[in-house]
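debug: dumping io for the single-chain case to check the tokenizer round-trip. Nothing else runs in this session.
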Amino acid sequence: LQTMLYSEIPKHEKKEYHTLCAQILERLFENDLEEGVFLITYHYQKTNYKKKFLHFTGLSYEESLKRYALEQAGYYLRNIVDFYFDNNFINQKTIDKVLELAFLIQLTGNHEQIEETFHYLKKSLEIAQDKNWEKEQIEIFIRLGSGYYFLNQTGAALTYHEQAMRLAEKRGEEIENAHPFALLGGLYYVHY
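debug: decoded output
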């Protein structure tokens, strides 16, 4: 019944109702935002208030992390990344969010979602290469390599990790992330 009634409300009115609900909930939970943040976020997602949407989606992401709800945190972070990609707001901070998202999803081990992060990572890599952001390129190569490693595609994983190492060497930097070294060590151990 609720779904049927909701479908009868014109789209512009739905946005007005969601805005009203979000504003009321924001006031209601102003002293205990942790309790109402997910509900407030839900309603702002359905409105045209994009700054509020980003703000509360970010808070929901952080609250999900505090609760160790990694899949839920990934959901909120993906919404933020999608917003930036859909609106072509791709800069170094956006790439940092993409790297966070890929790491988080790789922690959950969901193969389908890991593959989905490759779209974000490869688009970020194109932009980082175009802008000559080498530090970001190194991190993207590592995250791509790790993703392919988790999907048991060691050839692709090795290729991306080697690219990260070559670029880091060119810059005179050390890679602090142990994952590429663990992969290389594992591959050499198996082959000998």
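debug: round-trip ok. The chain has ten helices and no strands.
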